[in-house]
Amino acid sequence: MDRVKGSPRGRAAFLNPKIEYWNVPLIRNDEVLEQPANQATLTKRYTEEAERFIRENADQPFLVYLPYTMVHVPLFASEAFQGKSARGLYGDTVEEIDWSVGRILSTLKSLGLDQNTIVFFTSDNGPWLPYGTHGGSAGLLRMGKGSTWEGGMREPCVVWWPGGIAKPGMVTQELGSTMDIFTTCLSLAGAAIPTDRVIDGVDLTPVLRGTGPSPRKSMAFYRGTELYAWRSGSFKAHFITRGGYGQNKPVKHDVPELYHLLHDPSEKHNVAKDHAEVLARITKEVQQHRADLRPVTNQLER
């Protein structure tokens, strides 16, 4: 995060953040626009940039990928949203993102693009628990970011597509992944799914259209390159358990821990002894998964 020398050490700079503690640049293409960036303005500026791009490309197909810096620590909200939420600074940043997403949806409506544009709103991981109230909350889900417990991996997803979603306001517990967005969008656009490589995503169109269940029946949970857990239907097996980043050491289980996520989303009650047949099924699914794996180059090591 390019901390400035002399700024508070450890988490102190994150729990009482000031713009001058970081020397991060704001870059467009290859041009540095501002360094250090005024992080209190980032959410608003990202939104304005997205709106500009949408207007400039309104007469042709476009893709906007908008990963807001917030609500990642250090937290910053613009002046208009500081102190607006009862949830403190974290809540202020959420309020501003809520407002920003509303701006983008309004832009789509004003351009007449809302009936022909699909919007996915989700996140990549759960709360960063060591940062307390600045790290978010997973509610009843166990643990947070960095772990393969539900609190680290399970995220809500809101899909907005006026005229396309089968039932507005529909809530579903069908299984899906961010990997499925790619495949789903290709399907909706009438494009071919690549056949020259293994594609991990499935097409969630039946869920959106209300014509059938999700084709995704299982999910692998990795930490680095090691498989820690596997979900099959309503059950999730943990082969290795560990807390979030920097927390304790991994614990391997000769008999995997097993949880029924519909009955026990908090993963408190290990039911492995009652469901040997489920563990046998999961073992076969994992064996097939590993048989299909192909090694790839580690781009970080390059």
Describe the structure.
The chain has seven helices and eight strands. It has 302 residues and is α+β, with helices and mostly antiparallel strands. The protein has a domain at 1-114. A hairpin with a 2-residue loop joins strand 5 (218-223) and strand 6. Helix 2 runs parallel beside helix 3. It is globular, with a radius of gyration of 21 Å. The relative contact order is 0.08. The model has no long low-confidence stretch (mean pLDDT 95).
Please give the largest β-sheet: 4 strands, antiparallel
Shape: globular
Measured distance between first and last alpha carbons: 21 Å
- The helical percent reads 25-40%
Q: Based on DSSP secondary structure assignment, what is the total number of beta strands?
A: 8
Assembly state here?
single chain
- Please state roughly what percent of the residues sit in beta strands, choosing from under 5%, 5-15%, 15-25%, 25-35%, 35-45% or over 45%: 5-15%
Key traits:
globular, 8 strands, alpha+beta, 7 helices, 302 residues, two-stranded antiparallel ribbon, 4-stranded antiparallel beta sheet
Task: Provide the fold topology.
Layout: H1 12-15, E1 26-28, E2 31-34, H2 42-56, H3 88-110, E3 119-121, H4 150-153, E4 158-160, H5 179-189, H6 205-209, E5 218-223, E6 226-232, E7 235-241, E8 251-260, H7 276-292
Antiparallel strand pairs: 1-2, 3-4, 5-6, 6-7, 7-8
Helix pairs in contact: 2-3
